[in-house]
């Protein structure tokens, strides 16, 4: 769906979807009567739900504690950036690492279809950078936003080397 992560959805619909999930209901977008005949609404609701989930975690996947190290990545040269991002990711708690890896893998798949959905790695990093990295326990200058988005961009474009096994 074109620009799927840049569109907003009806807040009431998202709340109802969240309530269903919080009650333990499995949502099957392909067969759910509410979504079955409208792939665009299903895609939109799923994308908004993912962003909402990431924002609701209480702290970013990159953790508040590691934010100073993340901010320091802005000083790393372009030639050394991928290696520095890989080293940073290794510092994450295991659960955060697994969830980050899963989300970024999904974003790489979205980016692979950017000719259709217009969501390039750069566009995705602008949307997801703050959701994945913005600390919740301190003030951050807005000037750091570019660095946080760049970090997310590197995760997407260098997925295979950052998250090697």
From TrEMBL:
Record PROSITE patterns: RHOGAP
Residue intervals of the Rho-GAP domain: 1-163
Classification via Gene3D superfamilies: Rho GTPase activation protein
Cross-referenced InterPro entries: Rho_GTPase_activation_prot, RhoGAP_dom
BP GO annotations: negative regulation of endocytic recycling; small GTPase-mediated signal transduction
Signal peptide (residue range): none
Coiled coil: none
An MF annotation (GO) of this entry: GTPase activator activity
GO CC, alphabetical: cytoplasm
UniProt-recorded name of the protein: Rho-GAP domain-containing protein
């Amino acid at each position: 769906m074109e620009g799927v992560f840049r569109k907003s959805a009806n807040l009431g619909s998202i709340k109802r979807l969240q309530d269903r999930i919080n009650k333990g209901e499995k949502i099957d977008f392909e067969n759910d009567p509410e979504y079955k005949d409208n792939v665009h609404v299903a895609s939109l609701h799923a994308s908004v739900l993912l962003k909402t989930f990431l924002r609701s975690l209480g702290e970013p996947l990159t953790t508040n504690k590691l934010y100073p190290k993340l901010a320091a990545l802005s000083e790393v040269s372009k030639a050394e950036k991928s290696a520095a991002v890989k080293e940073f990711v290794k510092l994450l708690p295991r659960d955060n690492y697994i969830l980050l890896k899963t989300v970024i893998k999904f974003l790489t798949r979205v980016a692979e279809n950017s000719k259709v959905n217009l969501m390039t790695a750069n566009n995705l990093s602008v949307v997801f950078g703050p959701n994945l990295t913005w600390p919740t326990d301190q003030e951050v200058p807005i000037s750091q936003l570019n660095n946080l988005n760049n970090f997310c961009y590197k995760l997407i474009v260098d997925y295979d080397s950052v998250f090697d096994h």
